[in-house]
Amino acid sequence: MRVTVFGASGAIGRLVVQQLLDDGHNVTALVRAPGKLALTHADLTVVAGQLSDRDAVERAVSGVDAVISALGPSLKRSTTGTQVTDGTRGIVQAMERRHVSRFIGLATPSLADPQDKPHWKHKVLPVLAGLMFPNALAEMKGMTAAVTASDLDYTIARITKPTDKPATGRIRSGFLGHDRIGSAMSRADIAAFLVSQLTDTRYRRAMPAISN
């Protein structure tokens, strides 16, 4: 399968790219600084550019079967603006122009899915995030809305506490109040879940929460 990865040089994005290559996929990665990706492979194409570069984003999604976004907002309190929201909106528009429908991305349980039941995370996490990371929460809401308001065939995995522990292969997924979902999850397992959604149809146009 031909897959484009955004946020490929990040902690989760690099693992997504490696997992895709290990699984035999053809990968295109849009990165601002190609040297940060630190990966070379015959099936990897690197497109240098920023999310604000419409032409670069268009080239990155042209002719692919799916997009995986490992983008996330900065947690620095000094960060302002809507760069990630605007960038995600640009990705969605480029996908629509190029007739690429499958989008797989990340969010937080601070945002509810219609299939959730009432849960403490709906009450606690938005308050904590609003106090500690107000711009990051606003960005997360904006980038998620850019996808869910579109006609894309999306799956957005909601994560709470990513860790650098080794992959376990034990992944819980589902909806808050329905399924037993914890908080911590290794980035390697997050990457594996995102890649698995290329062929898993359970969560089409949904935002499952995931954990180890």
Radius of gyration: 16 Å
Would you list the SSEs in sequence order as H and E? EHEEHEHEHHEEEEHE
The major sheet is characterized as:
6 strands, parallel
Strand content: 15-25%
What is the total domain count?
A: 1
> Which structural category do the helix and sheet elements fall into?
alpha/beta
Please tally the β strands and state the result: 10
Q: What is the global morphology?
A: globular
At CATH level 3, the topology is: Rossmann fold
The average pLDDT is: 94
Helix fraction by DSSP (H/I, runs of at least 4): 25-40%
CATH architecture: 3-Layer(aba) Sandwich
Describe the protein in words.
This protein has one domain (2-211): 3-Layer(aba) Sandwich (Rossmann fold), CATH 3.40.50.720. Helix 1 links the parallel strand 1 (2-6) and strand 2. It is built from 6 helices and 10 strands; from the N terminus they run βαββαβαβααββββαβ. It has helices spanning 11-22, 54-61, 83-97, 120-132, 134-148, 187-196, and strands spanning 2-6, 26-31, 44-48, 66-69, 102-107, 153-158, 161-163, 172-174, 184-186, 209-211. With 212 residues, the chain is of the alpha/beta class. The longest helix has 15 residues, at 83-97.
